[in-house]
Amino acid sequence: MKTKLSLLLVLVCFLAAPVFAQQKTKKELKAESALKKQKEIEALIDAKNFVFEAQKVNPQGGRFIILNNNSYFLNFNTEKTTCDLPFFGRAFNVPYGGDGGIKFEGIPENIKVEKKKKNYTFRATVKGKDDVYDLIFTIFFDGGASLSVNSNNRASISYDGEIEAPKALTDKK
Q1: Between the CA of residue 59 and those of 46, 52, 62, 88, 157, what are the distances in Å?
Q2: Please, are residues 74 and 49 in contact by the beta-carbon 8 Å criterion?
């Protein structure tokens, strides 16, 4: 009787073990989440349609500045790119009465995407009303990004932030 009971107990343990093995560890869940985020970022880059939200500014020859307000952005789209970013640095030729920030709308040209081991390099040129802007994005798989803006009339400046999908336009009634 004891042998049958012990044999039954061993059999139940072997049958119950795979049930416990099906649960995913925190490490596996984290890896799945990272892979999902990477696929989302790749889809945004392939569509060439995303929003960069600046969180820090790195002016040339100065310390970085943390932006508390999340209203600074660059909305990249192949049809129309819109930018509203602050500028700290040397300006060579700025129109009279300007607010000093980098603000433009235009159609991007010369778009180049290069995938590396841990990030993407995304380049484009946008002709604004008063200047030509060279945009160089370094986009990481987790959604973090840095943007370097070079123009003819200002010193180069870079921003750190995140990219995300553009928010859907809602009708205001």
Answers
A1: 30, 18, 5, 6, 5
A2: no
pLDDT at 102: 87
Please report, for residues 27, 69, 147, 153, 163, the alpha-carbon distance to residue 65 in angstroms, rounded to integers and kept in the order given.
Answer: 34, 12, 14, 22, 19
Residue 45 has phi, psi (to 5 degrees) of -70, -40
What is the C-alpha to C-alpha distance for residues 104 and 106, in angstroms, rounded to an integer? 7
Positions of the chain with pLDDT under 50: 170-173
Nearby residues of 47 by Cβ (< 8 Å), 6 or more positions away: none
Nearest to 67 by CA among 48, 49, 52: 52
pTM over 0.85: no
Q: Give CA separation, 116 vs 62, 77, 135, 137, 146, in Å.
A: 29, 22, 18, 13, 15
Reduced to 3 states, what is the DSSP secondary structure of residue 83?
A: strand
Q: Which regions of the chain does DSSP assign to beta strands (E)?
A: 49-59, 65-66, 73-77, 81-85, 102-106, 108-115, 119-127, 132-140, 144-151, 157-164
Round to whole Å and give the CA distance between 69 and 21. 46
The 10s digit of each residue's pLDDT in 53-82 is 999 998 887 788 888 877 889 999 989 999
Residue count (the chain)? 173
